[in-house]
Write a structure and sequence with these properties.
Number of helices: 22
Order of helices and strands: HHHHHHHHHHHHHHHHHHEEHHHEHE
Number of strands: 4
Largest sheet: 4 strands, antiparallel
Strand content: 5-15%
Structural class: alpha+beta
Helix content: 40-55%
Number of domains: 3
């Protein structure tokens, strides 16, 4: 009769090389991503959610707190954030400073467990209080990865060196969490491919099944980079063909994750290649690098050791050192540092997290696959829908209760493809007749301005302006109404914090009397047009997104 130990040995055969080094690389890499994410948010936090920001955190927490108190609901369980303690500007900066220090410590390999616990709590706090500016899938993914890494980290070690001999081995509990980390990257990639097909309908020909998505992607993405212009010029047949390897990686390679070390390596290389291609042609913040870090646990130590041997051989030749260049076949990392008893103890205290995360991830997938059946009335590909609801109601309630903590989430990147690029350009005037443009940083404005290189930093307002332009116009109850009104007020009063989002102030002496938002349709120029004009962009005026408003 099979025992739990037999099952675990089947997942991680004793003869297979361990994942001790890959775990160390993953934890340190996650520290780098946390460092980037926190620093990127920190440098704009005053202007976005500070006391003088567009959507002050203190005001938000005050309103939510009153509502939760009236409803007799727990504040932390409903909106988990450390800023219930204090939402002052000083405390917000202290949290970011602490997160930065913990991320540096994690990169250095010190106290990985406590560092990850602190980073998860801090970034979850920033996520839940960031409003529209912290509503992106990679922020949720980072929180999910951070929570999982808490249980994957070696808590018995206060330092994790990268060494063939000193990398701490994995017990059964850590190996089970490693398997869950494989599931997370497989879930992310598979769902990113699945949504492109499942949400398609004949009424939306610009969607992926029409095979024309990439002919629009490069110029309609939120913040294109210079290579995006060149990629857009590729012939239509190539744009359509590029969907073939993309679907193979997103829909096929996730299954390789569970079929042995060699196929996991192929999956990791495929995922990484796709992420590098996306990063090369767009400013997608830290998302691509986070996904690559999530691929690191897929690679068995033997492959890292072989790469290290090749590097040593190359280095010896480069330095002209007398060396045969030979390297013994790498052996598994020594597991003698952890006893069977310690392994069982590690599995025991991690068991609740293993069961909870396993349940939530399975529920997320089944729930998402079924939910689409009720939201797409006329699907182009009905076979992508799960017609039967396989999640009992009590499991829905449990997932809903835990959802504020973002322990496991569904993802659907590039679910649809917009076919035109609409941009809101703010203009100011003192007399209502002569208008001057405000050029927003990182956004298309001047036609001769080259698309920027800004990733892995994410200018959050610039991203939200892209989403706001998809709305038909300004509405007091629209998704962007709150922060958009604050931007307009800041321009009308000449607020320094608001003006920091723009390249320059066309009204240096005194603020404008009126402000409006003009909607333009932007497109990349053709090579011929660029040679003649020097412009990267061309645009047509569509109309007013926001009618003139004044003091």
């Amino acid at each position: 009769m099979a025992t739990p130990m037999t099952f675990l040995r089947w997942l991680f055969p004793p003869g297979e090389k361990t994942h001790a080094i890959s775990r160390v690389l993953f934890l340190r890499g996650l520290g780098v991503i946390f460092l980037i994410a926190i620093l990127s948010w920190w440098v704009q936090i005053d202007e976005l959610v500070g006391s003088r920001g567009l959507t002050p955190m203190a005001d938000y927490l005050d309103q939510v707190g009153k509502i939760l108190d009236q409803q007799e609901r727990g504040r932390f369980t409903t909106l988990p954030t450390l800023f219930w303690i204090s939402s002052s500007d000083g405390f917000i900066h202290l949290a970011c400073l602490t997160g930065t220090m913990l991320a540096v410590m994690l990169v250095a390999g010190f106290a990985p467990g406590p560092c990850l616990l602190g980073l998860w709590a801090i970034y979850l706090s920033l996520l839940t209080t960031g409003g529209a500016f912290m509503s992106f899938q990679w922020d949720i993914l980072l929180v999910e990865a951070g929570f999982l890494a808490i249980w994957l980290a070696p808590w018995r070690r206060w330092q994790i060196p990268i060494s063939r001999a000193d990398a701490p081995p994995l017990g059964w509990g850590e190996k089970a969490m490693l398997w869950l980390s494989w599931f997370v990257i497989a879930k992310l990639m598979f769902q990113s491919g699945w949504v492109k097909l499942a949400w398609a309908s004949p009424e939306n020909p610009e969607w992926w099944p029409d095979h024309t998505a990439m002919t629009f992607h490069y110029f309609t993405q939120p913040i294109p980079n210079p290579l995006a212009w060149w990629a857009h010029q590729l012939p239509t047949w190539f744009q359509k063909f590029s969907l073939v390897p993309m679907y193979a990686v997103e829909l096929g390679f996730p299954f390789l994750v569970f079929l042995g070390a060699r196929l996991r390596l192929i999956a990791a290389l495929g995922f990484t290649g796709l992420m590098l291609a996306i990063a090369a042609t767009g400013n997608y913040t830290y998302f691509n690098w986070l996904t690559i870090v999530l691929c690191l646990p897929l690679v068995s130590d033997r492959y890292y050791l072989r790469v290290a041997a090749l590097v040593r051989k190359w280095w010896s030749k480069a330095r002209k050192v007398d060396s045969t260049g030979s390297s013994p076949r790498p052996n598994p990392v020594n597991l003698s540092g952890i006893s069977e008893r310690q392994s069982w103890i590690g599995l025991g205290w991690r068991a609740p997290a293993i069961l909870l995360l396993g349940f939530l991830n399975l529920h997320v997938c089944l729930g998402d696959w079924h939910e689409v059946s009720g939201r797409v009335a006329n699907p182009a590909l009905p076979w992508t829908h799960l017609a039967v609801d396989l999640t009992p109601e009590w499991t829905d309630d449990l997932r809903s209760t835990l959802s504020p903590f973002h322990l496991a989430s569904g993802y659907g990147l590039f679910r649809t493809m917009t076919t035109e690029r609409l941009e809101i350009v703010f203009e100011g005037s003192r007399d209502g007749v002569e208008w001057k443009e405000y050029g927003m940083r990182w956004k298309p404005g001047r036609l001769d301005e080259m698309p920027p290189l800004v990733a892995p930093h994410q200018p959050r307002l610039a991203w939200q302006m892209w989403f706001a332009a998809l709305e038909p116009g300004y509405h007091p109850r629209g998704n962007s109404a709150g922060w958009m009104s604050a931007v307009v007020r800041g321009l009308l009063t000449g607020d320094d914090a608001t003006l920091s989002f723009f390249d320059e102030d066309p009204f240096v002496v005194s603020p404008p009397r009126y402000v409006r938002g003009v909607l333009y349709r932007y497109e990349f120029t053709t090579p011929e047009e660029r040679r003649e004009t020097g412009n990267w962009w061309k645009r047509d005026r569509v109309g007013l997104w926001l009618p003139p408003v004044g003091n």
